[in-house]
Design goal:
Layout (H helix, E strand, L loop, with lengths): L5 E7 L6 H8 L5 E6 L6 H7 L3 E4 L6 H10 L5 E4 L4 E2 L2 H11 L8 E10 L5 E12 L5 E3 L5 E3 L4 E10 L8 H11 L6 H13 L3 H14 L4 H17 L3 H9 L9 H13 L3 H11 L19 H13 L3 H14 L4 H13 L3
Parallel strand pairs: 1-2, 1-4, 2-3, 6-10
Antiparallel strand pairs: 4-7, 5-10, 6-7, 8-9
Protein name: Glycosyltransferase
EC number: 2.4.-.-
Organism: Paenibacillus septentrionalis
Length: about 350
């Protein structure tokens, strides 16, 4: 049996607080570790070298794809795995990657892995999607885009059960936003992808009016990936809600129906908007819909599994209690408790109903 070999390729800057954690989590599954440093002023390069990585310098030119392509050029193994410094492989996923290396006749061009971005109080993923993580070096795949870059792949794809876990320890900086603003000032025409991610950066920095404008530019152009279209409607709704324009927030969420049947995430968002307006009948309708629409999510989209399971029951508990239907409120509380017994809100409701004498 001839095992495939793997080069880990990463770009980093000032990651001394997380880099060792990342490399330690994956080093047993890779055959070389390539670290491309884009200007660290801390111990990042020293830490990388101490763990056996090959360290290269790359002059930062405000272009993430250029840095990633440089890192890929240094690889010598059959396959390239890419990670960010605040990512890790949990032990079970490390074992899955090692097992994948031992498969006979493994000849895929790209391997997707789940990407878990956030977690609930029980450690279960609340937001995840798939990304192309492991690619055949001989295919010479390239990255594109100065910021929020993407890896263009084609050929035979394998959807693995391996997950990469994101463990961010620092808040996002304004680096990405500043790159976009500089490009805009220079008169560059943004691609649909740029429009979408620029709007996201504006939203993340609480520049809600500008974000709404760019989400509309993106959606009106009708050239975006369908999952980005759906996300743009949802995030535009968030911006309107932050601006206390609830009617427009609701309208923006309903706009997702132009691209997909109702998804549980958006049903719960709509339920929340109506609940905050004390419009309980509408809220009950949308939370109930969330329990029957999980079939419309995909691995390639962002989704929160809680919105199709215990969370709608938790919110229906509130709605039915507010309108005085204690029987249904207790019913949904019991279902929420069965699915997520340790959640603080579930425990609060348990004590609430016991104090009322209905449990």
């Amino acid at each position: 049996m001839v095992l495939i070999t793997i080069s880990l390729c990463m770009i980093v800057k000032n990651e001394e607080d997380v880099l060792a954690r990342c490399l330690e989590s994956v080093k047993d599954a890779v055959d070389e570790m390539i670290i491309v440093d884009t200007g660290s002023t801390d111990r990042t390069k020293e830490i990388a070298a101490s763990l056996g990585a090959k360290v290269y310098d790359f002059e930062w030119i405000n272009h993430f794809a250029a840095a990633r392509n440089f890192s890929f050029k240094q690889a010598t193994c059959d396959y390239i795995l890419w990670l960010d410094a605040d990512d890790v492989l949990l032990p079970e996923d490390l074992n899955r990657l090692i097992e994948l290396k031992q498969r006979d006749d493994f000849n895929y061009d790209t391997v997707t892995m789940k990407y878990h971005l956030s977690f609930d109080e029980n450690g279960n993923p609340t937001y995840s999607y798939r990304r192309n993580r492991l690619v055949k070096r001989s295919m010479n795949f390239e990255w594109f885009g100065p910021v929020h870059e993407y890896l263009a792949v084609y050929g035979a794809s394998y959807h693995s059960d391996i997950a990469v876990t994101h463990r961010k320890v620092r808040h996002a900086s304004d680096r990405n936003l500043n790159i976009y603003l500089a490009r805009l000032e220079q008169g560059e025409e943004f691609t649909p992808r740029d429009q979408f991610y620029f709007a996201n950066e504006l939203r993340d920095h609480a520049r809600y009016e500008e974000a709404i404008k760019w989400y509309d530019v993106f959606l009106d152009g009708k050239k975006g990936w369908v999952e980005d279209n759906i996300a743009a409607c949802s995030r535009k709704s968030f911006c309107y809600a932050e601006l206390k324009q609830n009617d427009l927030a609701i309208r923006s969420l309903l706009q997702t129906l132009e691209y997909t049947p109702p998804r549980p995430d958006f049903c719960c968002q709509l339920g929340n908007l109506f609940l905050h307006q004390n419009r309980y009948s509408e809220a009950i309708y949308w939370y109930s819909q969330a329990l029957s629409t999980s079939m419309y999510t995909t691995d390639m989209s962002f989704h929160n599994p809680a919105t199709a399971t215990w969370l709608p029951h938790l919110q229906l508990t509130v709605c039915y209690d507010r309108i005085g239907n204690t029987e249904k409120a207790v019913l949904h509380h019991k279902q929420a408790k069965e699915l997520n017994p340790k959640h603080p809100s579930v425990n609060y409701n348990e004590n609430y109903f016991k104090n009322k004498g209905v449990l």
